[in-house]
C-alpha cells in the first residue's frame, strides 16, 4: 500500500481534510480483501495479512499455534499483564510477535462485533504508515474467534535491527546533537498530529532512533493507545507530547531550552501555534 509521502526534516507534508480522509481510506484497505491485503479464516482464526509471498508463508507458519513461537522466543518488555511480546525466529528470519490475551467471557462477549486489540493496533500502524510516519511493518494479524466470540489475538511485525530506544540513544549525544534530535523529533510528532494521528504513549522507549547522514531517523512502536481522528485536535495532540516532555525533563533536568525548542518546533510542524 502506497503512503502519501513521508516528512523530511526540511519540510512538511500538506495535510488537509481531503488528505486525512485519503489516508484513512488507504489504511482501511488492510481490513478487507483487495490488491494489497488478504483477509481469510483458518484454524479458528480470522487472518489479516499483506498480499505477499512472505506474509503468506508467515501466516502458514504461525497457524494453528502461534504460542509455540512465543514460548521459544526472547521475551521483550510489554504493556501490562494481559499481553506478551517476544522476538521470534520464523523461517530463518527475526520478527516481533505480540499476543493479546482474552480477559474473560465478558470481554469476549463485548467484542463479538468489535475489533480485537491486535486488529486495532494493526489498523493504527497502517494509518501511521499511510501518513508517512515510520513504524515497523505489520505483516500478519490473527484473531481467534469461536462463533464470533473473541479469544486471543496476535500481531506479527518486522524486527528492526540496529535501532535503539531514545532512552539509551540520548546519553551518548553531544549538546548540538541533542538540539538537532529534539528538533527532528518535534517535526515528526507535529506532522503526525497535523495528520490527525495520536500515538498515545510517546515515552522514549517507544521512539526508536538511528543515525543518518542528515541527522537522525525515527520509528514509532507500541500502538496500543493510538487513535486516528477525523481532524487535528490541538488539545489531544498537546496531551500526546506529554510523555515525550516528561522523559526529556527526567533525562535532561537542566534542559529547559531543549523543552522550549521542542514545543516551538512541534507547534510549527503541527500548525498548533498557541496550543
From TrEMBL:
Residues spanning the membrane: none
Domain Protein kinase residue range list: 1-275
Top-level taxonomic group: Bacteria
InterPro entries: Kinase-like_dom_sf, Prot_kinase_dom
GO molecular function: ATP binding; protein kinase activity
Matching SUPFAM superfamilies: Protein kinase-like (PK-like)
Name of protein: Protein kinase domain-containing protein
Origin species: Trichloromonas acetexigens
Phylogenetic lineage: Bacteria, Pseudomonadati, Thermodesulfobacteriota, Desulfuromonadia, Desulfuromonadales
